[in-house]
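Bench log. Compound arrived from synthesis this morning; before running ITC I wanted a structural hypothesis for how zinc ion sits in the protein. Inputs:
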Amino acid sequence: MEVIADFHIHSRYAMACSKSITIRGIDEGARQKGIRVIGTGDFTHPLWLAEIKQALEPAEQGLWMVKGLRTATRFTLSTEVSTVFDHGGKAKKIHNCVLAPSLEIVDQINSALAKYGSLSADGRPTLGMSASALVEILHSISPDIFVFPAHAWTPWFGVFGAFSGFDSMEEAYEDMAQHIHAFETGLSSDPDMNWRVSKLDRYTPLSNSDPHSIPKIGREANVFEFEEKDLSYNSILNAIKQKDKRHFKSTIEFYPGEGKYHYDGHRNCNISLSPQQAKKYNGMCPVCGRRLTIGVLHRVEQLADRPEGFVPKDAIPFVHAVPLVEVLSYITKKGDKTLYVQNLYERLMRKFGSEFNLTLHAQISEIEEVDKDLAEAISRIRTENVSVIPGYDGLFGTVDIMRRIKEEKKGTQRSLRE
Ligand SMILES: [Zn+2]
Ligand SMILES: [Zn+2]
């Protein structure tokens, strides 16, 4: 059985997240997308944790389901915490995802972490402690707590980020790196970019959506294969640790150029640069003269010790997907939040069951029966026959599915005219 999992999500108590996120809403959003296992997000937040306890009941070992609903969705207790600390005179800020196997353990985690910062201030709390101290404390509570760095490459808060990160997992987590088994590649990087960094070989690349609203659930995800009877928190962890390589089948990826920090640049100066172009300007903005926001592609280049295209042995394969509402918005030229696009989406869900069923599995001929443009768009996305205008400095990129946007327009809108 295919089990698609998205471990990193947020509640309405996290900064900049939609106020309408509820447990039932997450359950429905996950089902619509085709996700079987989803994080609860934000278990460190007292109000959200109260909701988790009230709305969920135990299912398989370490997994939870919505009380009284009997849906197939399973929840895993998850949160994200920001560790902010000084390292060798430099300020370091790292976001860490945490998965826990039981509510008792969650309570222990929360009482331990409350000493380092206010857990009620934000669903994604800021803690005055090093990333290694975080892992040490959590590991002493239970070795079954699973910690991995979130969106590893983003300039701020990524473990390898250009501004407040490190050059290796070992530097960041010190002797606690032995308990780190995975890292989140983030929206702006794909596994193949990470394969170029040999010191990451022993860590499993994970893909999660880190959404700020329910429709963004599953824009990246992990695909596992389990027998129904074997599904549990422990079996998922073992699959991530690749104890048995047959279980972790693939990851579903955003086109990395669509991520907010793929290229270098300055949003306010309307400057977007490839790493090569940014190097020509010595990392300084040609408009305002200040330091450029160095994106993910550039950071990967800096740490890579292998050529582009290198594939390590046993690498977990990946596919690209574009969120269906975005595809519908693109082909109909109507906004993704319009009633028109929402109705179209609902109709497609009734026919195809779930979004991943349509975008990843359905026969193109089957989609053609519904809509020719949609079939062509899905076929182009599956075969990588799209063009991407890269995101930079916090601005999302654009996937130009049918290559409608003319080259000159791209140039003037999004990058420096040279
Ligand atoms: Zn984060
Ligand atoms: Zn500038």
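What the model suggests: The first helix runs from residue 23 to 33. The chain has 15 helices and 17 strands.
ITC booked for Thursday regardless.
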